[in-house]
Design a protein that fits this description.
Layout: H1 8-40, H2 44-60, H3 62-72, H4 74-92, H5 98-112, H6 115-126, H7 132-184, H8 189-198, H9 207-211, H10 214-243, H11 249-276, H12 282-302, H13 306-334, H14 340-368, H15 374-392, H16 397-410
Membrane topology: Multi-pass membrane protein
Transmembrane segments: 40-61, 82-108, 166-185, 215-237, 249-272, 284-303, 309-328, 349-370, 376-394
GO cellular component, one term: plasma membrane
Length: 411
């Protein structure tokens, strides 16, 4: 049936809600993991593998998910992805053994893995290029907000009904979002055609060209390093607060949420500044804020004062999520809409490999250190430094990619 074109800001709101539910579905696991560990009698190292199993499937689907979004459209891919991850959220609550839990979480990641690239492509379809950094950072600020809300949502729900029923309740939210996308999200054809026309000489660029572009791999490494920090920090912070800082479940949920509220504000501010103030200087912003985030993370686990530790957590997250906005502003400003899904999938593949590695490595480091989290946090600090150093090697990123596209168009 014919439908009136939905406002781009309505679409942005729906995408934002979709990401919130995405993060609720995956991040409540971090709050539930100490209790799942107690029920299944699992060590910290084994719990790290459970946390990482999701990211194995999630990472595997990043590049295929981007390709599917470019081929079949962002709307279809988002709907199917959300429906699948909702089913596996439900099944998480029904897990009967460690093996079942690992398989369910792996399939959960595969189901959810197409959503990031599809949502970035939807932004490119809905907004003119001059507005994409703000729109993308607004949408992705939901990442930090979802992490912030998850402990506040999960802790009281789990206290009332247990971790199994909590996952079943959350599964329903995903199905609601899939329906919203089905009803309201449509590509803005005129915008797509205008961008395609502006990039007519460059439209021959394909996935193979991206794979041959050094700048793209540097962006992958930068995002890999930063996501090592973000996923390690968010996955283990609730357990750290409960086991090392000795906070009660509800209090740990509140304290664990505060850094990610700061991250939400940081991403919204970062997106605005990337479009208005730091145009052409995004890599320098990313380098500075990542190093500041690493410094405050170091200060967090060095202090014995819980109030100071909470302040350092907030400052660390603020700067790290500012780096999130800076890194993701680059591909949206450089690349044509036609291959945005593939490019986003390629970059996010690096991030989700990090998501697979980081919780697992931290779990092994915590176990090897006899329950100490210091070595695990040093692992995160080193990853942030690697990301910042990689950023220093980015030279004339726009020129390099445009030359690659032009060269492809001439062949």
């Amino acid at each position: 049936m014919p439908q009136r074109m939905t406002s781009k800001y309505t679409v942005l709101t729906i995408l934002f809600i979709g990401w919130i539910v995405d993060y609720l579905d995956r991040m409540v696991m971090s709050v539930a993991i100490p209790f799942i560990g107690a029920d299944f009698h699992l060590s910290a190292a084994t719990l790290g593998i459970v946390l990482s199993s999701f990211f194995a499937g999630y990472a595997l689907m990043q590049i295929p998910g981007g390709w599917l979004s470019d081929k079949f459209g962002s709307r279809k891919v988002m709907m199917i992805s959300i429906a699948l991850w909702s089913v596996f959220t439900l099944l998480t609550g029904l897990a009967w053994s460690l093996a079942a839990l690992l398989v369910i979480r792996l399939l959960f990641g595969i189901g959810e893995g197409s959503f990031p690239a599809a949502s970035s492509k939807a932004i490119a379809e809905q907004f003119p290029q001059a507005e994409t950094a703000r729109a993308e950072s607004t949408m992705l600020s939901s990442n930090a907000l979802g992490v912030a809300i998850a402990p506040l949502f999960a802790a009281p729900l789990m206290a009332v009904m247990g971790w199994r029923n909590m996952f079943m309740v959350i599964a329903v939210l995903g199905l609601v979002v899939a329906w919203l996308i089905y009803v309201y999200v449509r590509p803005r054809t005129n915008n797509v055609q205008a961008v395609a026309s502006a990039n007519a000489a460059k439209s021959k660029m394909r996935m193979r060209d991206l794979m041959k572009t050094p700048t793209m791999w540097k962006l992958v490494i930068m995002w890999f390093g930063l996501d090592i920090v973000l996923w390690g920090f968010s996955s283990w912070l609730p357990s750290y607060l409960i086991k090392v800082r000795h906070l009660h479940l509800i209090n740990a949920g509140i304290v664990a949420s505060l850094p990610f509220f700061a991250g939400t504000i940081s991403m919204l501010l970062g997106g605005w500044l990337m479009d208005r103030v730091f145009v052409g200087r995004e890599k320098y912003v990313a380098i500075v804020v990542e190093l500041l985030g690493a410094f405050f993370l170091f200060m967090m686990f060095q202090t014995s004062n819980i109030t100071e530790a909470s302040i350092y957590q907030i400052l660390s997250a603020f700067f790290l999520y500012f780096g999130f906005a800076a890194i993701w502003s680059l591909p949206l400003k450089i690349l044509p809409v036609e291959i945005m899904g593939s490019a986003a999938g390629m970059i996010n593949f690096g991030g989700q490999v990090a998501g697979f590695i980081s919780p697992m490595v931290m779990g092994f480091l915590i176990s090897a250190s006899g329950g100490s989290y210091s070595t695990a946090f040093w692992f995160l600090i080193i990853a942030a430094i690697v990301s910042a150093i990689t950023g220093l090697t980015l030279t004339n990123a726009k020129g390099m990619l445009e030359a690659k596209v032009a060269g492809s168009a001439e062949v």
